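forwarding from the other thread:

> can someone predict this with citrulline?

sure thing
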Amino acid sequence: MLRQGLSYQFTHAVVRKPAHSVVDGLRATDRGSPAFAKFESEHGVYVKALRHAGLKVTVLEAQEDYPDSVFIEDAALCLPEGVVLLRPGTPSRSGEPIELASELGRLGLVIHPHESGGFIDGGDILVTDSSVLVGLSRRTDRAGFEWISKLLQQWNYQVLAVETPPQVLHFKSDCCVVDSTTIMATSRLSGASCFSDFKVLTVPAGEEAAANSIRVNDRLFIPAGFPKTSEMLAAAGYSIEAIPVTQPRLLDGGLSCMSLRFSQPPAA
Ligand code: CIR
């Protein structure tokens, strides 16, 4: 079933302030710890950009006990049917969804609890207008996939298991939705059969991190510092805006993982 605009037309976003403990966040390769003040400032630019794109942004308080909790996308999936709580597949993050559930419940969102023995990170879930792709990874296992697949199928989503490339943290580290029929992906993923129904823009070599971009309404936010990607997207006619994410990137994070984006109908 095609849901036009589901994957990039939003009215709301929820973000979480970075905790001071973010300096201890997880990273695959240590290239130095992020500096808290700089992280906070880049996060502020990100929130402002979401607001300029037309979103009402709720900023949740920092969770000091969870250094990676600023990467809020990994703890929940927001769909028009409600919020699906996830189960991050790394021990230091497993408690993040618990408090998030109460916070989102207080915003009036419908919460669907996690009910599987498996694991699933939001960074592995790519929602397109026609299907939901779930990347099996070091964080997302088959049981996590089976569970979410069953739940989302009840809501008539087509859900497919795909492979996150082995050296990549999350599926969405390497791809993003650009519009209803277009995906941008690294060369590691651009030929994948899961994208055969899409037009695929391949991120220029050497700029792989630019694949973690986000389309929000009429804007395409890309991480700053990737001139070839920027040129490619501008030439294709997209309205792009570069956002600095030097500090999140030290922790393998990027644009998609720092917000939950969704649409809510206007109150009656
Ligand atoms: C982690 O390893 O869990 C964090 N340091 C980064 C999470 C990034 N999340 C995402 O791409 N969805």
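The helical segments are 36-52, 96-106, 142-154, 227-235, 246-250. thats all i got for now
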